[in-house]
Amino acid sequence: MIKPPSLQRTWDAFTTSKHEPAIIRPPADLGGDATQEQRDQHAKDVDEWAAKILAARDTGQWGPVTVEGQQPTRFTLDQVNPEVWREIHSRASLPDDCERKLDRLVVYALLFRLALRGISGWDRIERQPDPAWSNWTMAPLSVVAHLDAVDPFIVSEIGLLVLARLAGERPLS
Amino acid sequence: MSQRADLAIADCGKCMSSTPALQRQHLGCGYLPRLKGRLSVWQPPSGYKGPDLTACAGYTANLPEVIEIAKIRLHWKHGNVTAACGGPPQDDVLDCVLILDGEYNALDQWRMTPAKDGGGGG
């Protein structure tokens, strides 16, 4: 059973990576010889697909965007410690020339590791303090490396979901 | 039938099957792409001072996190928030409970204010 979005407990997230066969893909790109009418229809179809994904993320109802008979890989996430989030936010907001500034991709990966509790079909993830990050307890870097080998989009996408929730951007913006 | 059901906000599935997609888009349905331009999203009655609603109130009220906070608020009112949360509540949870409680109080106040004074009372 999918755990719906929660502000208190663990919740499940899914990736729309092209390597996730169980989630319906957006309409394929059009060729260069497409007519204006085809381009307009394509843009409409892409908007509808994106709205379905957004609604699935808001409501936890993934049925309408899941390929029938398939189970997408489930990323179980938990709340990120607010003190840790404030530290990350503070460092991400530093000027570009500051050595301690965190790049957005680093922030996504960090939030992914901090929030991650499990991935369906994987062995149990052993969360440990990471000396590179003030000994914050998080999923090991090897998880990110493993997923990046499949598609770097996955970690960034899930990390961005965590960020959007921490920043209060979804679901009620 | 409850007032909530009267307003057709209790069941998104029922609304989807009975309301044309374009009309739902104009009402700010969260299941459809957002239309550009001015929508006719339902707004709270006079006296409401918060930001404009950008999505259908029914969609919003049925979101899991909103339901979660509404349930926790019921326990919070009786001093049982830790038990309801299965541990210490997250900062965001308490913030949301306070926001929701404030809106409940504002609604009660509006309902008890006579219509001639801008409220919803008789």
Describe the structure.
The complex is a heterodimer of chains A (173) and B (122). Chain A is mainly alpha-helical and 173 residues long. Chain A has helices at residues 36-59, 82-92, 104-115, 141-150, 152-166, and strands spanning 11-13, 75-77, 116-119, 128-130, 136-138. In chain A, β4 and β5 form a beta hairpin. In chain A, α3 (104-115) packs across α5 (152-166). The radius of gyration of chain A is 18 Å and the shape is globular. Chain A starts with 10 loop residues before the first strand and ends in a 7-residue tail after the last helix. Chain B has 122 residues and is mainly alpha-helical. The chains are: A mainly alpha (173), B mainly alpha (122). At the A-B interface, α1 of A face α5 and α7 of B.
Write the layout of secondary structure elements.
The complex is a heterodimer of chains A (173) and B (122).
Chain A: E1 11-13, H1 36-59, E2 75-77, H2 82-92, H3 104-115, E3 116-119, E4 128-130, E5 136-138, H4 141-150, H5 152-166
Antiparallel strand pairs in A: 1-2, 2-3, 4-5
Chain B: H1 3-6, H2 12-18, H3 21-26, H4 57-61, H5 64-76, H6 81-85, H7 91-112
Helix pairs in contact in B: 5-7
Strand content of chain A: 5-15%
SS element count, helices of chain B:
7
Principal-axis shape of chain A equals globular
Give the topology string of chain B: H per helix, E per strand: HHHHHHH
Q: Radius of gyration of chain A over alpha carbons?
A: 18 Å
Alpha carbon gyration radius of chain B: 17 Å
Mean pLDDT of chain A: 93
Structural class of chain A: mainly alpha
Q: Which residue ranges of chain B are poorly predicted, with pLDDT under 50 across at least 5 consecutive positions?
A: none
Question: Total number of β-strand segments of chain B?
Answer: 0
The SS-based structural class of chain B is mainly alpha
Oligomer classification: heterodimer
Number of strands of chain A: 5
Strand order of the largest sheet of chain A: 1-2-3
